């Protein structure tokens, strides 16, 4: 029975499939990008990423485990010397699959599988987008607030004030020649006339 064997066998026997994935993994580490079918690329992604994670720990045991899969000393040396340094800060997801269309003849779906940290163009675009992106609240906080200028009301001219007092029936214009004593005597003598309007006297001295 085929229990727990539901994966893509790629139309090959177990030995053939392991040899093929080993060779493809070596080519990917050496050239950083290879072109293949989508089905093989998905199988290679599952095969090679644990080896890349193992390469982060540069020990004799790690090197022997990786060599048991790749069987290529030059590729193992490059993996631990160059590639491991490049992917040291990446927590998984070391490869990227880019679909390129369909192959003429059998119409198989083709793609490119590459190491993410070796595609300089996409890394530059990502850095540019991250630098340009800002939050709306930050924009509102940084925006300068418009200054509200209080308009000063001009002081009324003395001539205009005198004309206003003369035109008001409850206001009385007193010439400058009158002293305060004369004013008091005047209002005391005419208290019966101004009795109802005492609260609305306006003095202009």
Structure characteristics:
single chain, 205 residues, mainly alpha, 50s Ribosomal Protein L17, Chain: A, 2 domains, 3-stranded antiparallel β-sheet, 8 helices, 49% helix, 10% strand, rod-shaped
Give helix % range: 40-55%
Strand order of the largest sheet: 1-3-2
Give the CATH class of the largest domain: Alpha Beta
- How much beta, percentage-wise? 5-15%
Note the overall shape. rod-shaped
**Low-confidence stretches at least 5 residues in length (pLDDT < 50)?**
197-205
Describe this protein's structure.
It is rod-shaped and about 135 Å long. Strands 1-3-2 form a three-stranded antiparallel beta sheet. The longest helix is centred in the first third of the chain and has 18 residues, at 14-31. It folds into two domains: 14-133, Alpha-Beta Complex (50s Ribosomal Protein L17, Chain: A), CATH 3.90.1030; 158-200, no CATH class. With 205 residues, it is mostly helical. The protein has helices spanning 14-31, 38-55, 60-70, 73-86, 120-132, 136-142, 158-167, 180-189, and strands at 33-37, 95-102, 109-115. The chain contains eight helices and three strands, in the order αβαααββαααα.
């Amino acid at each position: 029975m085929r229990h727990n064997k539901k994966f893509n066998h790629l139309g090959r026997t177990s030995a053939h499939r392991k040899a093929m994935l080993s060779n493809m993994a070596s080519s990917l580490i050496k050239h950083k990008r290879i072109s293949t079918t989508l089905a093989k690329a998905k199988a290679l992604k599952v095969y090679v990423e644990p080896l890349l994670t193992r390469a982060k720990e540069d020990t004799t045991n790690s090197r022997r485990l990786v060599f048991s899969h790749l069987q290529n000393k030059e590729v193992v040396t490059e993996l631990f010397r160059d590639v491991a340094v490049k992917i040291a800060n990446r927590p998984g997801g070391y490869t990227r699959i880019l679909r390129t269309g369909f192959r003429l003849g059998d119409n198989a779906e083709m793609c490119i599988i590459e190491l993410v940290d070796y595609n300089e163009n996409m890394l530059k675009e990502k850095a540019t987008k991250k630098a340009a992106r800002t939050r709306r609240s930050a924009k509102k906080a940084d925006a300068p607030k418009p200054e509200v200028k209080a308009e000063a009301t001009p002081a009324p001219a003395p001539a205009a004030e005198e004309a206003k007092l003369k035109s008001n029936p409850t206001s009385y214009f007193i010439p400058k020649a009158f002293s305060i004593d004369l004013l008091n005597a005047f209002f005391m003598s005419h208290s019966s006339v101004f009795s109802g309007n005492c609260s609305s006297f306006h003095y202009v001295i």
